[in-house]
From TrEMBL, chain A:
Protein name: Xanthine dehydrogenase family protein subunit M
Family matches, as SMART domains: CO_deh_flav_C
Keyword Oxidoreductase tagged: yes
Organism expressing this protein natively: Streptantibioticus rubrisoli
Gene3D superfamilies, sorted: 3.30.465.10, CO dehydrogenase flavoprotein, C-terminal domain (3.30.390.50), Uridine Diphospho-n-acetylenolpyruvylglucosamine Reductase, domain 2 (3.30.43.10)
RNA-binding listed as a keyword: no
Matches recorded under PROSITE patterns: FAD_PCMH
FAD-binding PCMH-type domain: residues covered: 1-222
Residues annotated as transmembrane: none
UniProtKB keywords: Oxidoreductase
Automatic annotation (TrEMBL), chain B:
One Pfam family, short name: Fer2_2
Top-rank taxon: Bacteria
PROSITE patterns linked to this entry: 2FE2S_FER_1 (PS00197), 2FE2S_FER_2 (PS51085)
SUPFAM superfamilies (UniProt xref): 2Fe-2S ferredoxin-like (SSF54292), CO dehydrogenase ISP C-domain like (SSF47741)
CDD domains, A to Z: fer2 (cd00207)
Protein name (Swiss-Prot/TrEMBL): 2Fe-2S iron-sulfur cluster-binding protein
């Protein structure tokens, strides 16, 4: 591991100032991904600015009836909060479907959103990777890509974003609050992560030194039901092969409000806006759900070994939406 | 020698203070500096759980935590669980249930189980907890233990007996 200096400022402004003046510096949250990448040589910051103890540890109701979650809140703490389980169950479900209890106890909300892809080539400094070393190439396209993207990829990169939480947040229209030397700003979660294009080394739209301070959820949609479902190789403790977060409100048998987000299909949580638009005002039936999801997945461009993700994502989405539409389905929420 | 930082933390009830290379993990602090070799280095990448310890009462992978970031915290390792020569109930249960073969994963399994039981008592849900479960402690059924202990791998495959041992103590 390369040498680095370590600073633990006590307020966000100091943290931002430390990073802004140091191009090789990085923020340290729970460290569950960053410390591993440093051991692998994939990340080599010369300064770590520890933001895990900044005063962003609150989970509080907003004046508008939403929820504001501090960026330093640990994943396990957030998943266990009664208010989260009752009002935003897919946040809890998504968090609990990811990693292990030990990792969730350390990982922070801000760090979860900024974790890097688990593409094997990105994590192996002996291999080319355009995300890690721009211009070096992407062996994944012809190599091992079973876990990788079918949507929004480019010839330069087919990485997926590994977060479960981000998928739920995308479906909930969450906002991300940021602070930088230029001051605070807020972004929809769906605009935080980038598709690779010809700059796959840029995972997000954040500027150097910009710090996530909180995630804000709007008030729950009345009478809407929601679910997060994840397909993976093991029953526990594995990244998604595909996942879906959905929020559905049905009135008189018709879709009145719907949000669908896919995980593990792209470099960012994939909001299925084409499917959502196709469903609005339509009958809440399995057939309509299938047609809408097919329209969304028509954009899929699978590689040699990940074509299975198209029918997998379709079945996940259709089954979740059908369950949510059934008035007496188990686990109503 | 790289950049150094003075770190003070509490390990198994005793103050531990040392100037450490910033690259030192909590795991290496415990094994190489505090000479507590109960905690094990398995994968060293947060995937196997052999390095599990309790950080301020919560189970964590010590291989992924930087020692410098642990200043002021309280750490409990397997050595801190027993009361003198009297085994912790989970240590006793692992022996009684034959819940290990080679033993390399056992300190991590036991620290993890201490955390898992505390989390369930505090009412924390897992991925298999019913969505409409009432507030309050979660009963550690077999599926609950299997899910909550999934971050601890056992290459000998002692899982069945580990589940029994954890359930006995949780009751």
């Amino acid at each position: 591991m390369k040498e680095f200096r370590y600073e633990r400022p006590t307020d966000a402004d100091s943290a931002v100032a430390l990073l802004t003046d140091a191009p090789g510096a990085a923020y340290l949250g729970g460290g569950t991904n960053l410390v591993d990448l440093m051991k692998l040589g994939v990340a080599a910051p010369d300064l770590l600015v520890d933001v895990s103890r900044l005063p962003f540890e609150e989970v509080e109701e907003t004046d508008g009836g939403g929820l504001r979650v501090g960026a330093a809140v640990r994943n396990s703490t957030l998943a266990a909060r009664r208010m989260v389980r009752e009002r935003y169950p897919i946040v809890s479900e998504a968090l609990l479907s990811g990693a292990s209890a030990q990792l969730r106890n350390a990982a922070t909300v801000g760090g979860n959103l900024l974790q890097r892809t688990r593409c094997l080539y990105f994590q192996d400094v002996g291999k080319p990777c355009n995300k890690r070393r721009p211009g070096s190439g992407c062996p994944a396209r012809e190599g091992v890509h079973r876990d990788l993207a079918i949507l929004g990829a480019s010839e330069h990169c087919v990485a997926t974003h590994p977060s479960d939480l981000a998928v739920a947040l995308a479906a909930l229209d969450a906002m991300v609050h940021l602070v930088s030397a230029a001051g605070p700003r807020s972004l929809p979660l769906t605009e935080l992560h980038r598709l690779p294009g010809d700059e796959p080394h840029r995972d997000t739209v954040l500027r150097h030194g910009e710090l996530i301070t909180a995630v804000e959820l709007p008030p729950p949609v009345p009478e809407a039901r929601s679910a997060y479902r994840k397909a993976r190789d093991r029953a526990s403790y594995a990244f998604a092969l595909a996942s879906v977060a959905a929020v559905l409100q049905v009135r008189g048998g018709m879709v009145h409000h719907v949000r669908i987000a896919f995980g593990a299909l792209a470099a960012r949580p994939w909001r299925a806006r084409t499917a959502e638009e196709a469903l609005l005002g339509q009958p809440a039936t399995e057939e309509a759900f299938g047609e809408a999801v097919d329209r969304e997945l028509a954009a899929a461009r699978p590689l040699r070994d990940n074509g299975y993700k198209v029918p997998l994502a379709r079945r996940l989405a259709v089954s979740v939406l059908t369950d949510l539409a059934a008035p007496d389905a188990g686990g109503q929420r | 020698m790289g950049a150094m930082t003075a770190v003070t933390l509490n390990v198994n009830g005793e103050r531990f203070s040392r100037e450490l290379d910033n690259r030192t993990t909590l795991l290496d602090l415990l094994r190489e500096h505090a000479h507590l070799s109960g905690v094990k280095k398995g994968c060293d990448h947060g995937q196997c759980g052999a390095c599990t310890v309790l950080l301020d009462g919560r189970r964590v992978n010590s291989c992924l935590l930087l020692a410098v970031a642990m200043d002021g915290t309280e750490i409990t390792t397997i050595e801190g669980l027993s009361d003198g020569t009297t085994l912790h109930p989970l240590q006793r249960a692992f022996v009684d249930h034959d819940a290990f073969q080679c033993g390399f994963c056992t300190p991590g399994q036991i620290c993890s189980a201490v955390g898992a039981i505390a989390e369930a008592r505090a009412g924390w849900p897992s991925a298999v907890t019913a969505h409409d479960a009432p507030p309050g402690p979660v009963e550690l059924t077999v599926p609950e233990v299997r899910e909550r202990m999934s971050g601890n791998l056992c290459r000998c495959g002692a899982y069945v007996n580990i589940v029994s041992a954890v359930r006995e103590v949780a009751r």
